[in-house]
Amino acid sequence: MTEETLKFGTSGLRGLSELLVGRPAAVYSSALARVMAAQGRLTPGGKVLVGRDLRASSPDIARFCFAGLIEANVVPVDCGELPTPALAAHAMKLGVPAIMVTGSHIPEDRNGLKFYRPDGEIDKHDEAAIISAERTARLPENIAPADAESDHGVALDDYRGRAIGMLGPDALKGMRIGVYQHSSVMRELLVEVLSALGAEIVPFGRSDVFVPIDTEALSAADAKACGATVREHRLNAVVSTDGDADRPLIADETGAFLRGDLLGAVTAAAIGADYVVTPVSSNSGIERCGRFARVVRTRIGSPHVIEGMSIARAGDVSTIIGFEANGGVLLGSDAQLAGNEVAALPTRDAMLPILAVLWTAKSKGKRLSAFASDYSFAAAKAGRLQGVSAEKSSAFLSVIKADSAFRDALLNGILDVRALDTTDGVRLTGADGSVLHFRASGNAPEFRCYVEAGSEENAAQLLEQGLARSRKHLDCL
């Protein structure tokens, strides 16, 4: 069995909580400070913001982050429990680095750190520099946790104001919206913002223990609970987020959940985006709908989307947006929503798509269930096999890529492969336009599968068969 280690994935450092609590959290925090100082982005005595989600391990990890920053001769500022995009936005406003203690949607026994430069998320070059700095760190082996000065809720207040300012009072008046609270760090804020915008709110599902909500692979229990609440209260929609609120979750008036990439497409149209950056796993309807002048595909992970948006900013483009199949929206330029100015926020955010989708439905008199056909989206589903190591996933994917005979045998009877894309994992397109996309998770020991098909029934069947056949071969490795 491969020994568990902390490692960088598609969005920050992740691993078992027990491996991060203590000196490791301090060392990586110190490493960020050293890298930022070397880049001229942080001076001695400068401030670094630290926020956290609602996981049980997050407060302890944050206190070791404070300790590491103090050792690096900078001042940690405790922003408390708040959404990741709120922390990122405030750090950009102040021109300082930031660290978010969160495992996002991965299981409760894990956690992580997301790092931010004064101008937004770190990139892969910064990541490599942090890894190098961590390896040469000289912190005491028995370093003790520390306290930090509080920001007194200013970061959260600013984000609340940003959200309400996107639409204005009574913009959602007449809508009945359920807020699935679970253990989202945005659970209170969503109720406050939607109420301020005039909607009637039905909060439900609040949890005292952490619930790992994956917006790309929602559990049957979560789907059932949300559907029952929609029917009981006759709601127009249900909204929620993952643990650190950088991924939205929206169900329509029937209780069916809208795919994250559809939320991104509706948001892009709502702000009049002319340049869309999205990973290869997003629905092919984004091009097919014909609403966007340019669509650029990338590998999965916000750093790749951010890189694509950076390239766009160098050209003659007015409104840039990035989004992923998980629903997280990155605003690459200043934009307008409902006639209101919205400042750029080039990190994954759940609030913008939630408000843009609800406003689009309200202003156009549409039901949310109509969006998929409006945007020519194919039926699509996603699933995962848990407990699959990165090594097993990599070996399996390598064989699929290189061995056509193995590939044909694996997919015999379920997909007649006509095209193969290896931008990220293996994305296979069939003769009938169906898509089967395999890849390893960058954040957890999981093997992921994404499918597109001509109907919900066919998509469900393709996903089930794709996962079952993958499991059979992975078990043999």
Task: Provide a descriptive summary of the structure in words.
Strand 11 and strand 12 form a beta hairpin. The mean pLDDT is about 95. With about 475 residues, this protein is an alpha/beta fold. Helices cover about 40% and strands about 25% of the residues. The longest helix has 19 residues, at about 455-475. The chain has three domains: about 5-150, 3-Layer(aba) Sandwich (Alpha-D-Glucose-1,6-Bisphosphate, Chain A, domain 3); about 175-375, 3-Layer(aba) Sandwich (Alpha-D-Glucose-1,6-Bisphosphate, Chain A, domain 3); about 380-475, Alpha-D-phosphohexomutase, C-terminal domain (TATA-Binding Protein). Strands 1, 2, 3, 4, 5, 6, 7 and 8 form an eight-stranded mixed beta sheet that branches. A five-stranded mixed beta sheet has the order 14-13-15-16-19, sandwiched between helices. The chain has a five-stranded antiparallel beta sheet with strand order 20-24-23-22-21. The chain contains 16 helices and 24 strands.
In short:
With 477 residues, the protein is of the alpha/beta class.
What is the count of structural domains? 3
Overall 3D form: globular
Distance between the termini: 12 Å
What class, by secondary structure content?
Answer: alpha/beta
Q: What's the CATH first level of the largest domain?
A: Alpha Beta
CATH domain topology of the largest domain: Alpha-D-Glucose-1,6-Bisphosphate, Chain A, domain 3
Helix tally equals 16
Helicity range: 25-40%
Q: Give the tally of β-strands.
A: 24
CATH superfamily of the largest domain: Alpha-D-Glucose-1,6-Bisphosphate, subunit A, domain 3
Examine the secondary-structure arrangement and name the CATH architecture of the largest domain.
Answer: 3-Layer(aba) Sandwich
* Average pLDDT level: 94
Stretches where pLDDT is under 50 for at least 5 consecutive residues are none
Largest sheet: 8 strands, mixed
Strand content: 25-35%
Radius of gyration computed on alpha carbons: 22 Å
